[in-house]
């Protein structure tokens, strides 16, 4: 039974023409970055000269992360997520949406950029070269803004799709399939021709499955074939070399 399931998935990915990648936790080691940022956040009281202000910053960031996860369950909010993600936190913390946005942009978007190169996964750049040599289109789709992170990572590959879940054309966080399918539309490809690469089973693999895309997940638990439950099918890898092996056998 297991072998038949593997064969079925391999057939579906046998005509890969593009690779769509997540960024956070996929192009770089997120745990390493979080460790560095945790140390920097511990210096907030000194930077702001106030324990009270530091507590405000910490609470805003905590509520923002929790709010982002809660918004994943919304299929169609009817309100732009780019503003809703801030207004919901503002109500909870009793500050203005503008204050929330400023804290998030500073501590989640700007300050981590300087650490990205030292945290990026080994052989990442070689992967993009591998894809280019084989005529594969490459792009990124993340729940967070992508352009500055790509620059921070030092990626200069010709990415033809750069998408964020809060883009007006998407307005839905993963695992909603809208972003995955929008990438297919831009590439004029069928979902089965696009391999999605992420690091979270419940977000990336489930979203790819909902869109009809084959999926590879960075995980410490490797598998020789495609694994998963009735809802998801994915290949587990630990390195970009492993990703190249998966693609090489499927094109």
Can you tag this structure with a few keywords?
251 residues, globular, Rossmann fold, 12 helices, alpha/beta, 51% helix, 2 domains, disordered N terminus
Description:
This protein has 251 residues and is an alpha/beta fold. The chain has 2 domains: 2-28 and 120-248, Rossmann fold, CATH 3.40.50.1000; 32-115, no CATH class. The chain has helices at residues 2-12, 30-41, 44-48, 51-71, 81-93, 97-110, 116-119, 124-133, 147-153, 178-187, 201-211, 240-248, and strands at 18-21, 137-142, 161-164, 194-198, 215-218, 226-227, 234-237. It has a 7-stranded mixed β-sheet with strand order 3-2-1-4-5-7-6, with helices on both faces. β4, α11 (201-211) and β5 (215-218) form a beta-alpha-beta unit. α4 (51-71) packs across α5. The chain is globular.
Outline:
This protein is α/β, with parallel strands linked by helices and 251 residues long.
Structure summary, number of beta strands: 7
Instruction: Write down the CATH class of the largest domain.
Output: Alpha Beta
Structural class: alpha/beta
User: What assembly state would you assign to the polypeptide chains in this entry?
Assistant: single chain
Strand order of the largest sheet: 3-2-1-4-5-7-6
Per CATH, the architecture of the largest domain is: 3-Layer(aba) Sandwich
Under CATH, the topology of the largest domain can be stated as Rossmann fold
Number of domains: 2
The overall average pLDDT, rounded, is: 88
Terminal CA distance reads 25 Å
Please tell me how large the radius of gyration is: 19 Å
Largest sheet: 7 strands, mixed
Low-confidence stretches: 1-14, 223-231
Note the beta-strand portion: 5-15%
The name of the CATH superfamily of the largest domain reads: HAD superfamily/HAD-like
How much helical structure, as a percent, in the residues? 40-55%
- Number of H- or I-type helical stretches: 12
């Amino acid at each position: 039974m297991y072998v038949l399931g593997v064969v079925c998935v391999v057939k579906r990915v046998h005509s890969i023409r593009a690779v769509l990648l997540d960024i956070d936790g996929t192009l770089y080691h997120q745990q390493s970055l979080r460790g560095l940022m945790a140390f920097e956040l511990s210096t907030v009281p000194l930077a702001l000269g106030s324990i009270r202000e530091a507590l405000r910053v910490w609470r805003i960031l905590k509520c923002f992360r929790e709010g982002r996860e809660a918004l994943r369950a919304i299929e169609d909010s009817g309100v732009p997520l780019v503003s809703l993600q801030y207004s919901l936190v503002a109500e909870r913390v009793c500050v203005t949406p503008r204050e929330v946005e400023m804290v998030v942009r500073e501590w989640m978007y700007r300050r981590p950029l300087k650490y990205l190169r030292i945290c990026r996964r080994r052989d990442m750049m070689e992967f993009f070269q591998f894809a280019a040599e084989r005529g594969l289109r490459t792009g990124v789709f993340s729940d967070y803004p992508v352009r500055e992170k790509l620059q921070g990572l030092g990626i200069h590959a010709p990415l033809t799709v750069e998408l964020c879940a809060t883009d007006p054309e998407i307005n839905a966080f993963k695992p909603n399939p809208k972003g995955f399918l929008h990438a297919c539309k831009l590439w004029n490809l069928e979902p089965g021709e696009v391999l999605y690469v992420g690091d979270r089973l419940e977000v990336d693999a489930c979203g790819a499955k909902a869109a009809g895309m084959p999926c590879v997940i960075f995980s410490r638990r490797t598998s020789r074939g495609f694994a998963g439950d009735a809802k998801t099918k994915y290949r587990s890898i630990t390195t970009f070399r492993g990703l190249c092996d998966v693609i090489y056998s499927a094109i």
